[in-house]
Amino acid sequence: ARAWEKAFSKVTQNDGMTINLQGFNPFNYAAASSLSSSSSKSKANGSVGVAGYNTRISLRATYMQQLTGELLSAVGDDQETRTILETYRNFLLEPLEDGETILDYDESLYTPDMSRTERYQAFRSSMDQRVSSSKNPNAKKVLQAMRDFVLEFENNDQSDAAASS
């Protein structure tokens, strides 16, 4: 075992309770809230760490939270919404345009064998379902704006455009 693993294998809290940190990797940390949605999958994949919490964080999910927060603050201002979406354009289109960029298929809508067209179909279906099930009117507007923005690029195959230039 590495020195830091031995040194920090057990931590005693102020209340005298000991937390077993065996196998915990601070570079694969995730918030406990992600456990509720993926605990069985995480346990099956062996990525459960401290006190049964999922010890992975998705940078893509964190970035998506930042994007949705910005969009929520701009609800009602179509020009600002468009500016925000343009700023995040590459981030939003990356998994649709290039399947090679999907790092964690366990957490994705997409599978490795999907074509670009199939990825856009999966995106459309997922976003339509999210929009229809959203009870919050502002969240619904944000989801609709993201969906509509991304789908503007569905018929603009960037790989064909790059090949013809």
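^ that was protein a. below is b, sequence first then the tokens
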Amino acid sequence: MEIPSVVLDGLCSLGELDNTSFANVVDGVYDTLSGKTTTQELLKRLDIDQKEAIVDSLMLFISESCRRNVNPGTISEVLQDLQLPPERVSRFLASHKVKHLTLKSVLAGTKPGSGSILDVRWKLEVARGDGGSAVGPRYSIHLITDREPLHFYCSPAQLDDLVSQLQSATFLYRQIYQQSVHSLISYFYVFD
């Protein structure tokens, strides 16, 4: 499983949390991704340093693990490579075992084309730590969709990754569309 460095940095910060905070973050992210709570509610409940970076990284890691159906052994290896203590790895895997099926069903219900983005609003902000000191830049993204608005934060690197993925998807869509049109034209010429 290839993980961007900015996500790894956020995941490394999990090792600095006490056991209670670690459990709250992991369970809170699963609950947020499953739709039981919002990111803003989760962030308000957490009293830890770098909470935005940790939550954003963990959200990406968990959602991609579930979406790609990554086995627990691979998840364990990734967490061990991050030097997380064995009890943290076990705690994470225990939460994953209990909550990943719910999350997978939520992700399975999110089908391509099931919603349309009508408008995007974004702004560059300075992320602040718990002490009020500047931690670094982050983007606040607000998507207006035909269903419900979505709001999330991401780092500049995560935004670059998202934009490149959207560009790749657009390119692939255009290729498929052109191939379909070419096939239809060829089909009609055969019967002409």
